[in-house]
Write a structure and sequence with these properties.
The complex is a heterodimer of chains A (350) and B (481).
Chain A (H helix, E strand, L loop, with lengths): L2 E5 H11 L4 E4 L6 H10 L6 E4 L3 H13 L4 E5 L1 H16 L4 E9 L5 E4 L4 H5 L10 E3 L4 H18 L2 E7 H5 L1 E5 L24 E2 L6 H21 L3 E4 L6 E4 L2 H16 L4 E6 L1 E3 L3 H5 L8 E6 L4 H10 L6 E4 L8 H12 L2
Parallel strand pairs in A: 2-3, 2-4, 4-5, 5-8, 7-8, 12-13, 12-15, 15-16
Antiparallel strand pairs in A: 1-9, 5-6, 7-14, 11-13
Helix pairs in contact in A: 1-2, 1-6, 3-4, 9-12
Chain B lengths: L37 H14 L6 E5 L14 E4 L5 H11 L4 E7 H7 L1 H10 L3 E7 L29 H4 L5 H5 L7 E6 L3 H19 L4 E7 L3 H4 L3 H15 L3 E5 L16 H8 L20 E8 L4 H14 L3 E6 L9 E9 L13 E4 L2 H8 L7 E5 L13 E5 L1 H7 L6 H13 L4 H11 L5 H22 L1
Parallel strand pairs in B: 1-2, 1-3, 3-4, 4-6, 5-6, 8-11, 11-12, 12-13
Antiparallel strand pairs in B: 5-7, 8-10, 9-10
The chains are: A alpha/beta (350), B alpha/beta (481).
């Protein structure tokens, strides 16, 4: 298989090209700018559209238009830009438009800094715009997954007619790793039922107004049904050294990479630490986490680069049968493997 | 003898026959108020689409405002969009369907207030679209608040004492602003206040949609339109109000018409064929070598920090090492210190090369440090693991390392590069030194990779860097064996 040393941000753009993405609309922001730069270099080589939008808001609305015309379409940004895109995302979700958004999280709140953080968790997973809706969220932790999960994101977006996020942090975006490049998709799904192509048969309506209260409630219930199906079918996790684990750490993105190192050190010290890594954040691995409470573990430790946003969902899944502890870093700091091991020893007396 | 023609009264085919998207019982009439201009404009558009036989290829973008429900009426593709964003949506709709006629239909609040930037930027890009800008100097839909085009002194629900230009600013003349841009092909302002002006508006509408059909680019038609409800007056006084109050502030004019001399926009056809995609991505020339690993290497797993001044090839040394590691079949990662610190000052990167799957990519406890300047030596010597290895650049560092529990390789890295005649080859001197110190890479194999590592660079550059690798390697072999 052909392989290439590349940044996570570049790998995501390769994934988009391979998935048949026809258009990129975006606005520069560190640490996601390589996505736009890479798209600006690659998309025109394929006669596909790259456009640097005048704003984050314009970019997501361009995504809305392209998605409404049945194109696989991508945008990328980071925290402050994602905040600005939320209105448009609500429209995309409300109009059941498939599209892919990559969020390379940085330090916040406010202007914060450009270091890695995971503090967009709530604004992305909980559907940060107005109204009742959810987006599917994939959380890669390597350059390879930036490519593979971006491809999967397009597939899921079309399968469920829903926006899909690829959510990761500055480290995964900026880091170079070897990526084995998969085969391009050979067939794109048929969207002629609803997409607008500027032809007689495609004079459809893309819309999210339901003046009648009952109609809007009905539409909300249909969306809820869709999310329930997604919750049932699409949960993805990675388990690492879980077979004999007495303590389980939970983390995604960069945190999960550090956890892998921490587990190496812990095991050398005779501490049976394992990891459950959510690859999908919505759908959240509720059952997989709930099941941990029945294992007789010494403890569950959630490791995140945010202020407890992830541990809240972990504890919701545990439903009071156990309570996860939290180890977190913020402000652009990444937890270290040693720091995590020390925390584990301190918390669980091992 | 002239036969009398039977006049058939019917809707233009640009309209849906029965307005099925419209809720309620009245599916044969619009939701607009009596005396409103929207109905006239809708009819002019629908008629033009029929007459030019472009109904089927037309896509209309409905804004937020009274014309939010434009999709009730037009028998075209329809997208209803967020407030102010119609030109952004129309942009991608037009790019996705370059053969279609894309119409952005907007009111004054939508276009000139919340969407002010979007309209300017779409105009500036010369997108192939028509914008119908309905200027009635008020927010109709929300109940009569101040618009950007509200006249000086005009009373609205949010200017109960009249628009005060000292606090609310002046009515914005959008055509005049659009006309400052280079790309638009047609910029015109018309009015609906009497039949002759409706006829002029009709001509403008027809010209604009033809421009879109012929892919001429950006056409902008501003139409002064009545809002009797918002203005709180009857229909006829509303028409007079346009004539007497609006036109003096918004003069009717064809500001620009260069569509005749403008060539049609051509958009590329996307390449989607998988084989062609792989060809363009260069699948056939991507890495596939598998060099034999050295079982006797001094290090079998590297967690490396390379650090120095920006411009010393810190990042490129790390990337080159990761690339070589990949060719040996190792797992590799490279992580830069990114952001403003890249611009001058110090730079560093983490490189991991190992057999196992890599966890953290940042080397917080490196077993190898290459320090290219004194601040880097001071910063990163401290975090080396016990028994770790330090390579440092004696050309620029005139202090000794302070730790006794590490292996040190003082090497005049900059000096070696300068001797080769180009200080930029420091990074490859480092690669050579790394190969010798760790024993992980063979310099001959690195030479085999030079054309890959320096793809697209002239032969002289490749040769020079090859020499740099060799010099770095030999310096270590000769001085530390």
């Amino acid at each position: 298989m052909p392989r290439k040393l590349m940044k996570g941000n570049h790998a995501a753009v390769y994934g988009a090209i391979l998935a048949g993405c026809k258009a990129y609309y975006g606005y520069p922001i560190t640490p996601a700018s390589e996505i736009a730069e890479s798209a600006s270099a690659l998309f025109p080589k394929f006669g596909r559209t790259f456009l640097q939008a005048e704003s984050e808001v314009a970019a997501i609305n361009m995504v809305y238009g392209a998605a409404g015309c049945g194109q696989r379409v991508l945008t990328g940004s980071s925290g402050p830009g994602i905040s600005l895109k939320q209105e448009g995302l609500s429209y995309c979700a409300a109009s059941a438009l498939p599209c892919v958004v990559i969020d390379i999280m940085r330090g916040g709140p406010g202007l914060g800094n450009i270091g890695p953080e995971q503090s967009d968790y709530n604004q992305v997973i909980k559907g940060g715009g107005h109204g009742n809706y959810k987006v599917i969220v994939l959380a890669p932790n390597s350059a390879q997954e930036m490519c593979d999960l971006t491809m999967l994101a397009f597939e899921l977006a079309d399968k469920y007619r829903n926006p899909v996020f690829v959510l990761t942090d500055g480290v995964i975006g900026q880091m170079m790793e070897v990526v084995e490049l998969p085969e391009p998709v050979t067939e794109l799904p048929d969207k002629s039922e609803w997409a607008i192509y500027g032809t007689a048969d495609s004079r459809h309506l893309i819309n999210s107004i339901y003046l009648d209260h009952d109609d809007l409630e009905q539409w909300n219930r249909e969306l809820m049904k869709k999310y329930a199906i997604i919750q049932k079918n699409e949960v993805r996790v990675e388990e690492y050294r879980m077979d004999d684990a007495e303590i389980v750490a939970i983390g995604y993105g960069s945190s999960s990479r550090v956890l892998r190192s921490a587990i190496g050190i812990a095991r050398e010290r005779g501490i049976k630490l394992g990891m459950l890594r959510p690859i999908t954040l919505f759908p959240f691995p509720v059952d997989e986490i709930a099941e941990l409470a029945d294992r007789g573990l010494k403890g569950i430790l959630t490791v995140e680069m945010s202020d407890g946003q992830l541990v809240d969902d972990v504890n919701l899944a545990l439903s009071g049968k156990m309570i996860s502890d939290l180890h977190n870093r913020m402000g652009g700091n990444v937890p270290t493997a040693l720091e995590i091991c020390e925390k584990v020893s301190e918390l669980y007396g091992v | 003898m002239i036969m009398a023609q039977k006049t058939v009264l019917r809707k233009p085919k640009g309209f849906i026959d029965v307005y099925r998207h419209k809720p309620g019982a009245e599916k044969d009439r619009t939701h607009y108020c009596p005396g409103c201009g929207h109905g006239i404009i809708h009819k002019l558009i629908a008629e033009a689409l029929e007459d030019f036989d472009i109904v089927e290829k037309t896509i209309i973008i409905s804004p937020v405002g009274c014309s939010v429900f434009a999709y009730y009426y037009f028998h075209t593709g329809n997208l209803q969009v967020p407030h102010g964003r119609a030109p952004a949506v129309a942009t991608s709709v037009s790019r996705a369907n370059p053969d279609s006629v894309v119409i952005s239909y907007q009111g004054d609040g939508d276009l000139a207030a919340i969407g002010g930037n979007n309209i300017l930027q779409a105009a500036n890009r010369g997108e192939n679209m028509v914008v119908f800008f309905v200027n009635n100097a008020i927010y109709g839909m929300t109940g009569g608040q101040m618009a950007p085009t509200t006249l000086e002194g005009q009373i609205t629900t949010t200017t109960p004492y009249g628009r005060n230009v000292k606090t609310d600013g002046y009515p914005i003349q959008v055509c005049e602003i659009i006309n400052q841009l280079t790309a638009p092909v047609y910029v015109v302002r018309t009015s609906l206040h009497d039949m002759p002006n409706i006829r002029k508006t009709r001509a403008a509408v027809r010209k604009a949609v033809l421009n879109a059909r012929d892919k001429k680019g950006f056409s902008f038609v501003e139409i002064l339109s009545m809002c009797p409800s918002g203005w709180k007056m009857d229909s006829v006084p509303a028409q007079n109000w346009i004539k007497e109050n609006m036109i003096p502030r918004f003069p009717l004019d064809t500001f620009r018409d260069i569509s005749e001399d403008t060539p049609a926009i051509e958009r590329p056809v996307p390449v989607m064929d998988p084989d062609e995609v792989k060809k363009i991505l260069g699948y056939s020339v991507l890495s596939d070598s598998n060099f034999e690993k050295n079982p006797d290497a001094a290090l079998e797993k590297v967690a490396l920090r390379v650090a120095g001044f920006g411009g010393q090839g810190i990042m490129s040394a790390g990337i080159a090492l990761a690339n070589v590691g990949m060719e040996y079949g190792y797992n590799v990662s490279w992580l830069p210190s990114y952001g403003p610190e890249m611009r001058g000052g110090t730079a560093n990167c983490s490189v991991k090369i190992q057999e196992d799957t890599i966890g953290a990519s940042e080397c917080t406890e490196p077993n190898l440090v290459i320090a290219m300047n004194q601040p880097s030596l001071e910063k990163f010597e401290k975090i080396l693991v016990p028994e770790g290895t330090l390579i440092y650049n004696t050309t620029l560092i005139n202090i000794e390392p302070s730790r006794g529990d590490i292996k040190v390789y003082p090497i005049p890295i900059t000096g070696i590069a300068d001797e080769l005649g180009d200080t930029r080859v420091q990074s490859m001197v480092n690669v050579g030194a790394f190969a010798a110190v760790t024993g992980m890479f063979d310099p001959g194999e690195i030479e085999n990779l030079m054309s890959f590592l320096f793809k697209g660079k002239p032969e002289s550059v490749i040769k020079l860097n090859e020499k740099a690798v060799r010099k770095g390697y030999e310096y270590v072999k000769e001085n530390f064996s």
